[in-house]
Amino acid sequence: MSRLRENLHQALFAGLNLATTAPSVYLWLGLPVLMRQHGWSGWEIGLFQLAGLPAVFKFLLAVPVERYRFRGGQYRGWAVLLCLGFAAVLALLGQRELLSDRVTLCVLAVASALMATWADIPVNALAIRLLPASARLRAGGLRSAALSLGAIVGGGLMLLVQAKWGWAAPFWFMAGLLVIGALALLCIDEGAAPIAAQAPLASRGVSSGRAQGYFAQPGARAWTVLLLSCFPFIGAAWFFLKPLLLDRGFAVPQVAWLVGVGGGLVAAVASVVAAGVVRRVGVARAVPGVTLLGFLCIAVLAAVVALRAPAAWLGAAALLVALAMGAAASLAFGLMMFFARDGHQAADYGLQASLFALSRLAVPVGAGFLLDRTGYAGMLCGLALAMGGVFVFALRGSGAIGRTAAPG
């Protein structure tokens, strides 16, 4: 693959991840600010995350993507179709204000999560197919950066757009991004593109079965445990930052700029930097380092909240969590590409993404329950302790993971 083509593919997939991520960020990280203003409790906000349950079933949604082909490319055709379907659901969400109509909001949120989940599979399976092994850590960093920019768009800028132009404006804007992304996909010639270089399945001790073959890969079991735990505790701390800042007297525009924009920029930069650092120091060393960083950043935020430190300290601690979140996401997305086998990109990616989503959805519900009973300080202490346990596991399991996830 030429360097120019590789860079164009990297840019396209990063843009597609931004377009498919921003709506979900707005629904599950942006709307909680408005929900809190309309009287939703911490428990109700946490339960709303369950509207994202379709993400848990990516392994099932990957089956038709893997099995049925479109003319001109198996994954490209699915990606175009599902991005357009996602845009249609967002248009429905924008028809009228739904914060007081909780049933309709939840139903359409589930539909949005379904389309976002399904579209994510062919988009990233196509990236795994087209990008060589040497580009995967960079792709993971760029994807994480795109998700962080999606957080800026969905969790920050769209709140400002909503405040200025009303309920419908954010949904129509994000639907437009998806339509543009679908049109850009038509420029990809999947059939003529080279398949990413990867060791043959037999040499990796992997059977031809899908789930069985995935778990048979060296280091896959240790990686799966880490996949379930390296990000969700950091993500839960980030999720409740907006309600925390509101309850501490921050205005909605301040929250949007500090967490939505500032935090998104910090996470995006951290994602790109982390990808380069991981490539230099190796996965075996990077895994414990990233999990330790997550533990320290959550612990600092917990201390700042418990001591009721000034607003400036709280803002700085929030940006530290963004730093840890970007690094953890970059590492996770890069490693997911290494553990997706040739010929099973959609199935293996779907399985990993389902496991990732399961823990990401479960932890905020538990954290919301803890928040209502112990307050923000108690919740954050619990998340920090859990992240400390992840670090201990990473010290023991990183070697096996590093032997499989070696850049080409």
Give an overview of the whole structure.
There is one protein chain. It contains 15 helices and no strands. The longest helix has 60 residues, at 345-404. The protein has helices at residues 3-37, 42-48, 58-67, 74-93, 102-130, 136-165, 168-185, 210-216, 220-229, 232-239, 241-247, 252-281, 283-306, 311-338, 345-404. It is mostly helical and 408 residues long. 79% of the residues lie in helices and 0% in strands.
Task: Describe, in short, the structure shown.
With 408 residues, the protein is mainly α. Helices cover 79% and strands 0% of the residues.
Biggest sheet, open or closed, and with what strands and sense? Answer: none
Count all strands and give the number: 0
Regarding quaternary structure, what we see is: single chain
- N-to-C series of helices and strands: HHHHHHHHHHHHHHH
Helix run count:
15
Low-confidence segments: 192-208
Overall structural class, as computed from helix and strand content, comes to: mainly alpha
- What proportion of the residues form beta strands (DSSP E)? under 5%
Helix percentage range: over 70%
Radius of gyration: 20 Å
Separation of the first and last Cα atoms: 14 Å
Task: Give the overall average pLDDT.
Answer: 82
**Bulk shape:** globular
List keywords for this structure.
single chain; mainly alpha; 0% strand; 408 residues
Layout of SSEs?
Elements: H1 3-37, H2 42-48, H3 58-67, H4 74-93, H5 102-130, H6 136-165, H7 168-185, H8 210-216, H9 220-229, H10 232-239, H11 241-247, H12 252-281, H13 283-306, H14 311-338, H15 345-404
Helix pairs in contact: 1-5, 1-6, 1-7, 2-15, 3-5, 3-15, 4-5, 4-7, 5-15, 6-7, 6-12, 6-14, 9-15, 10-14, 10-15, 11-12, 12-13, 12-14, 13-14, 13-15
